[in-house]
Amino acid sequence: MEVSSEKLVIGFVAIFLLGVMFAVVNGIYTEEVDQSLPLIMYAISFVSIIIGGFVVMLFQWKINKVQLEKVLKILPEIQRKIVKVLIKNNNALEQNRIVALTGINKVKISRVLMELEQREVIKRTNLGNTKLIVLKI
Description:
Helix content is 72%, strand content 11%. By secondary structure, the chain is mostly helical. The chain has a three-stranded antiparallel beta sheet with strand order 1-3-2. The termini are close together.
């Protein structure tokens, strides 16, 4: 799963704001009680951040899986077959291997891959005499 730079920035800002909030709360607590916050408060906060991160990752994974299923429903049968082959092979495969695994002729595969590239479902890059096909979704 790839994390976008926007999500990273939001995550760092949230952690920074949490740190500022702890500093303010610690200052207020120190003025009133004349002691700093107990270490258990910091430990509970750290564990909460870790658990929250895992929950967010699980929801994001489920959302990505649902989106992929929706995309597969939209695609025509031959395109769906190629995308499924790519998914089974870690989202990247050489074009000649796709021909071998699907049993579809080279010309048809080439045309279908051009259509998928226009839809921005895949990315094709030259790899010697063949092309490397990478799933973008």
